[in-house]
Amino acid sequence: MAKKQPAVRSTSARSRDRGRATRHRLIEATAELCTERPGAEVSVAEIANAAGVFPNQVTYYFGSKDSLLVHAAFLGLLHDARRAERVGRQAPDAATFRRNIARAVLAMPSLPSVARALAAAISKPELASVVDRHLQLLFRQSERFVSQLIDNRSWSTRRPLSMEVRTFWSTALGAVLLVRAGVHGTAAELDLAGALTIYDESGPA
Questions:
Q1: 72 in helix, strand or coil?
Q2: Cα separations in angstroms, 146 against 13, 72, 152, 170
Q3: Cα 149 from chain centre
Q4: Measured at the alpha carbon of residue 80, what is the angle toward residues 79 and 81, in degrees to the nearest 5?
Q5: What predicted TM-score, i.e. pTM, was given to this entire model?
Q6: Measured distance CA(54)–CA(176) in Å, rounded
Q7: Per-10-residue mean pLDDT, the chain, length 205
Q8: 128 in Cβ contact with 121 (< 8 Å)
Q9: Is 39 left (phi over 0), alpha (psi -120 to 50) or beta?
Q10: By C-alpha distance, which of 176, 37, 170 is closest to 112?
Q11: Largest CA distance in the chain
């Protein structure tokens, strides 16, 4: 019996793969540019050049530069959050964890870009759904991390995990927004560790 020849992938499937690869390159390149130049304006031409694509592909795949910047900002935040998780895992007790994770989050290089993304979503409602999708992904990632940590170490929280995570990130992002809005002081003056209710057996009930 003759062997069946493997099916040739359709042109549309290959086109979708190329599209996903281009989107990924654009997001990665934008995230790198924003990290290298925090607070600086990044042009479409610079983004396209860094990604090795044509400038009109920014609007083709994302609709606008602002939408791409939102995707890139949250990609950077998710990467930074994973690095912060590694810091958190090294803590010997819950009190040290609260201090270390708060310090690591406030030092994240992606936070200024995320603050700009949040501000853009306020002024441009069409970006709100993009921001919401990324925030929900961040919350889920953080919930998994905290759930594994407290299960492995027999720690506890005084709030449901979903509320714990959302309270923590809302406090951190709110602090950055206030600083960027020109409010006197710095994010480092915030007691972000106090936004966490994670304790070990020796902590308060």
A1: helix
A2: 38, 25, 10, 16
A3: 20
A4: 90
A5: 0.79
A6: 33
A7: 54 76 91 78 90 91 90 91 94 94 90 84 87 93 94 93 94 80 62 91 56
A8: yes
A9: left
A10: 176
A11: 79
Look up residue 198 and give its two tokens: 């994670």
Give the position of tokens 């130049």: 37
Q: Both tokens of residue 107?
A: 């030092």
Structure tokens at 77: 């935040």
Cα 199 to Cα 205: distance, rounded to the nearest angstrom: 8
Cα-trace Rg, the chain:
21
Say which residues have a Cβ less than 8 Å from residue 204's Cβ, sequence separation at least 6.
Answer: none
- What DSSP string runs through 107-145? T-TTHHHHHHHHHHHHH-GGGHHHHHHHHHHHHHHHHHH
